[in-house]
Amino acid sequence: MEKWVALVLLLVFWKIREGFGVKAEEVTYDGRSLIIDGQRKILFSGSIHYPRSTPQMWPDLIAKAKQGGLDVIQTYVFWNLHEPQPGMYDFRGRYDLVGFIKEIQAQGLYICLRIGPFIQSEWKYGGFPFWLHDVPGIVYRTDNESFKFYMQNFTTKIVNMMKEEGLYASQGGPIILSQIENEYQNIQKAFGTAGSQYVQWAAKMAVGLNTGVPWVMCKQTDAPDPVINTCNGMRCGETFTGPNSPNKPALWTENWTSFYQVYGGLPYIRSAEDIAFHVTLFIARNGSYVNYYMYHGGTNFGRTASAYVITGYYDQAPLDEYGKQPKWGHLKQLHEVIKSCSTTLLQGVQRNFSLGQLQEGYVFEEEKGECVAFLKNNDRDNKVNTTSNRRIISPKQNFSSLDDWKQFQDVIPYFDNTSLRSDSLLEQMNTTKDKSDYLWFEYNLSCRKPTLSVQSAAHVAHAFINNTYIGGEHGNHDVKSFTLELPVTVNQGTNNLSILSAMVGLPDSGAFLERRFAGLISVELQCSEQESLNLTNSTWGYQVGLLGEQLQVYKKQNNSDIGWSQLGNIMEQLLIWYKTTFDTPEGDDPVVLDLSSMGKGEAWVNEQSIGRYWILFHDSKGNPSQSLYHVPRSFLKDTGNVLVLVEEGGGNPLVALSGNVSYDGRSLLIDGQRKLLISASIHYPRSVPAMWPGLVQTAKEGGVDVIETYVFWNGHELSPGNYYFGGRFDLVKFAKTVQQAGMYLILRIGPFVAAEWNFGGVPVWLHYVPGTVFRTYNQPFMIENEYGYYENFYKEDGKKYALWAAKMAVSQNTGVPWIMCQQWDAPDPVIDTCNSFYCDQFTPTSPNRPKIWTENWPGWFKTFGGRDPHRPAEDVAFSVARFFQKGGSVHNYYMYHGGTNFGRTAGGPFITTSYDYDAPVDEYGLPRLPKWGHLKELHRAIKLCEHVLLNGKSVNISLGPSVEADVYTDSSGACAAFISNVDDKNDKTVEFRNASYHLPAWSVSILPDCKNVVFNTAKVTSQTNVVAMIPESLQQSDKGVNSLKWDIVKEKPGIWGKADFVKNGFVDLINTTKDTTDYLWHTTSIFVSENEEFLKKGSKPVLLIESTGHALHAFVNQEYQGTGTGNGTHSPFSFKNPISLRAGKNEIALLCLTVGLQTAGPFYDFIGAGLTSVKIKGLKNGTIDLSSYAWTYKIGVQGEYLRLYQGNGLNNVNWTSTSEPQKMQPLTWYKAIVDAPPGDEPVGLDMLHMGKGLAWLNGEEIGRYWPRKSEFKSEDCVKECDYRGKFNPDKCDTGCGEPTQRWYHVPRSWFKPSGNILVLFEEKGGDPEKIKFVRRKVSGACALVAEDYPSVGLLSQGEDKIQNNKNVPFAHLTCPSNTRISAVKFASFGTPSGSCGSYLKGDCHDPNSSTIVEKACLNKNDCVIKLTEENFKTNLCPGLSRKLAVEAVCS
């Protein structure tokens, strides 16, 4: 926090003055202060709004205000609460204004009553009742007779009520000030002379009510006498020019102690020091009244908050929302000191003098010599550290049981059922009359494959077709209008379009408030390329509010009329009412409701609305603006409290997170129960939010319990203190997606992650913090992951750092265990874990810790120019089964879905943009079969053994060379066995418990009952998918153009704009760019004599370059000369190429570049890149060394600087259009406007014929493209991989001599139906006409199942125990949804050979195979073919192992 000033109050004479009594009979004022019963007063006041708390809270809040040194409580009067209908008044409960004032009086404090009755105050409609809107001819807050009538009527009502109770000071009561209007000067100009006339009228009307106390007008410099104009703001000591008359005192009616917060906005935190400074400065400059707005903000219960304002109000005030005291003490001390010298301040003479450039003094001196001095230091550069109270939230009750909840599904109306109709879009507020936040817009449409476009000036819109939700959008506090664009799937005939428009509070300020528009502005349907329908002036049906609101389902007396049902599937459902009961937490601490698992809606407790919630709307740091909601204890009963929620945004009332997580030497314990957990790594920024639910659900269907992710520091803290948690980096949204799927989350904060991510996840700016050395005991840097590999490199500091990191993590008090991967000296209570291809032999360093495998690598990453590694499903399953066989309890696949290194996030260097990892779920989100399916069956088999594995005792039994059984039994008689054969060549047959078992080499059999084999890791029964990349030519969005049009901009090689610097010799590439770009230009020039021999002979000199990495493109005299590059195992490289020189001056321009920064290794942050030598060989004078020449440098390329790929940057240059772009043009930007590919399959970009560069779609970073061919020879790769034996990344490689990455994933959610802007920057030259989109599609499925493959108990997808059925092997084929098996390409029962796509019949073949399979499968989405004698001739080829091979087509 910046300390703006240091201020000292110097008391030359100190005397504690006598206090004051609250009873006053006369209040006047002069130019110095208010005068109460003839005595000038310095008064400290605090705003506490009675309806923002409860009558039960009022005494304590007022008492704390008094203890804090306040003299006055200030409150608005809330017209729309008190007069909900004309002439109908309500002053009950929280609205008991008289009761509130009398409590203040009883505690000996004064009142400032701000009647307004316009108040703003972030209160709906600025405090006006909405019925006022319907008064004919009314215009608010101007010289309008209708408005003045109702305003005067209400003001008189309040004044007379106060008089009747004897509450004005002139009657001996506590009210010493009243306010009319509020901050009117902000809008006065909009009304011209009528505004000035209104000010005069309002002041005269108020004074004419004869209250006997002064009236004030805030921020109103033309306030007529005797009304006092006052200041509102944070710095009135600096900004207030004083009252408009020397006979009026300087009063500060609103000193904003923080500021209100809006949904999607960050809290404004104002320090106690800053508040105190400006209060003291105001007093030093002759101020005499300071009011803290707010002193207690409280809660916007119900629907009282204005537009986008959160339910909690001014939580950072001296008394927080719950009445606690974060800033209270510092201000209390200030008040005591100032009051101790108030006589001198009010009676003395003030003088001001300078003490320096930024320092000054204020002195008050009485004739008798008493003196007070204020010394002000306005130096804003010094820093001060401040402390504040820490709010501790102690969970008391989880609502995690399905049985605790009931639900009521709200009903989406149909057009035909609406009674309100209009031939245009109705304004929302005028239609709902503030009876509800919600208004349904209903329309019957007939349109083929429409795209819906809705423009709204409300706050939220949800669209439904035929009761099915299709999408939603919302605005924000600053930009309230928004557009919702959605492709729509419709039925034949008439379809019902329903749009639910929602307000999040009414507007609260501004001129002509009565004219403010909210609701839908326009609705359009694009039915086809030729047909567009504007529905704005069509016939719409309307329904105000939700059905549940009309039925008042939150009220007890209505429950018998409502069909509540048990909680069903809650995933992403909208418009559901939830109800549960709970007991009141013990004690007297404030009670809050944690709604962090919900989406958007409103909550009631015992029929009292605690307000709106909107968890899904995150701030710029990725957090909900409010997740904790105040439930006043006065709302509660001891038991049987009823909580009702209406959920609009698809939240989950079941809190999936456990209340208690601990561990013992066997496993993690969740709520006291040991758990065997299968985990899957899915990195949120390597996919997109639209993919997250599908990825998580696919993992869950694969038998996964836990999602694991790293946290990517450099994706979140872009510069020190500048955080980003939006889009792909919305960590909270990702975690909630996992939660809503009913799964657990392992959060690997690191924040060093390695992960083949740029710079290991550490922000590059950290490297330039003075004194920083990564990953050692070094004050600026303290983080961790896989540190055990490198600890010894840092010697004693490495050990100290590991201990510090563990202690720091545990001190965060998360309530869950912490782990350290590959950390053999992890201190208690941190758990050390294993990362490897095999972890069955891993043992934690303490017997009290469970055996956890945090990274089982089911594949491996790729590098540009490298090979394509694959790990067989059989070996992955073998490693997992061995881990659990040997006592493991938590296992994680790294990766389960690798995803995409979008933009420049890939590290390495040379890591490809694809991070597919040969994972169970591929880069595009499709299950990789058979790997995904084989592991799914493995998980089911292991889960059958869970209880006895975790709670039984184990015995290891040797069954011969390389074969062993681990047998688990418990006291109940349960038994499970894992039998393994670790021989990597030979199958084995063993005897176990009087039965014979055949084990293929390098396999594990699982026997959940110690009898029946339900799974063997080497026997893959899961189908294999046939996946095709279907090419789609780029389609121009402009249908009037016959061929694709490219817009082109060419960059000039070398320095663009102004050079960044000139230096003799070379600079480090990374230290210069600081990773703001991949690119750094180096240019110099040489002079070639016309007498050079090579000019005469036609030969060419040779350019010789040495570089530490990563790559470069060389240009001479603007012409491309070639590219040099390192690779993923060796970044340094040499470049040797003939170049064309001419007589005279020749410009050498080298574009040096990085391809991702180092991700790991000791002192990896000091590994540099860039040129070390540049020479030219073949000149008359021999070889010229240019290394020490003067080189001119420029960071980045110009198009990148101009942001030609995004938003307004697209217009920063003049593009040249052509339908026949030139080929092989280096340094060229390409732009095309294209349609989205048809269908809903994942999309890639085929860049086979391009060179190297970057790609964007609609401003989103696709990433680096580089179809660089693998440098390995064909013999370095395998045609078939033998799963047997230990795996390493080079064991089963493919792709030798082929492009390392041809296709680049473009998420579907980035596309619009048309008008998509594709931008490329090509570095070295390619053929853009050959660029295509591809659709990744499952086009077929294969199965290969033998008679001896286990299937006991696994045929039924829902089984959780073994059935004593005969083992009946079967083949199971499934096509993607919406497709069917259209043909059987191959079927053979007998001895077929080959693999999917190349099966061959063997010597033994059942001729009926195709007929049997076609009968079972044709025209079905999925089918099962059992290997029984009813289906096949099982007596064929006796003595041989018979199997069924099938290949089917999906279409």
TrEMBL record:
Q: Which UniProt keywords apply?
A: Apoplast, Glycoprotein, Glycosidase, Hydrolase, Secreted, Signal
EC nos: 3.2.1.23
- EC class of the enzyme, as a word: hydrolase
Source domain of life = Eukaryota
From the Swiss-Prot or TrEMBL record, state where the protein is found.
Secreted, Extracellular space, Apoplast
Q: Which reaction does it catalyse?
A: Hydrolysis of terminal non-reducing beta-D-galactose residues in beta-D-galactosides
Q: Does the keyword Kinase apply?
A: no
Which BP terms in the Gene Ontology apply to this protein? carbohydrate metabolic process
Which Pfam families does the protein's record reference?
Answer: BetaGal_gal-bd, GHD, Glyco_hydro_35, SUEL_Lectin
Q: Cite a single GO MF annotation.
A: carbohydrate binding
> So which residues are the signal peptide here?
1-21
Q: Which ranges carry the SUEL-type lectin domain?
A: 1365-1451
Entry annotated with the keyword Zinc: no
Cellular compartments per GO CC: apoplast
InterPro entries reported in the protein's UniProt record: BetaGal_gal-bd, Galactose-bd-like_sf, GH, GHD, Gly_Hdrlase_35_cat, Glyco_hydro_35_CS, Glycoside_Hdrlase_35, Lectin_gal-bd_dom
Protein family membership: Belongs to the glycosyl hydrolase 35 family.
Give the protein name, as stated in the record. Answer: Beta-galactosidase
Species per Swiss-Prot/TrEMBL record: Glycine soja
